[in-house]
Amino acid sequence: MATLTYVYAESTAVIGPLAVSHEPHTYDLCEGHAERLTAPKGWDLVRAEGDWAAPPPTSDDLAALADAVREAARPATAESVAKDGSPQVGRRGHLRALPNPR
């Protein structure tokens, strides 16, 4: 795993170790894409040397996963059921709970 960062002001793309926090203009890449990626025409490409091991999960990752599971497991409320009685698609942040097809 690696992180690609575009530095638009310097027309440079940098591929380095996986970032631990999200920054603007960064994209996480698998190893294969990180090795084969090329920069746009006229840009410089900088590749950091070394092994890029994935960072271990943090408590924030586990907390976000637990919150998503709790949210999906909540019983239906009056707002989440359509007038015809069918469940509606719920959305919270970047997660979406889809109704169970019957």
UniProtKB/TrEMBL annotation:
Residues 70-102 are annotated as: Disordered. It comes from the Bacteria. It holds the Pfam family DUF3499. This is DUF3499 domain-containing protein. It comes from Cryptosporangium aurantiacum. The lineage of its organism: Bacteria, Bacillati, Actinomycetota, Actinomycetes, Cryptosporangiales.
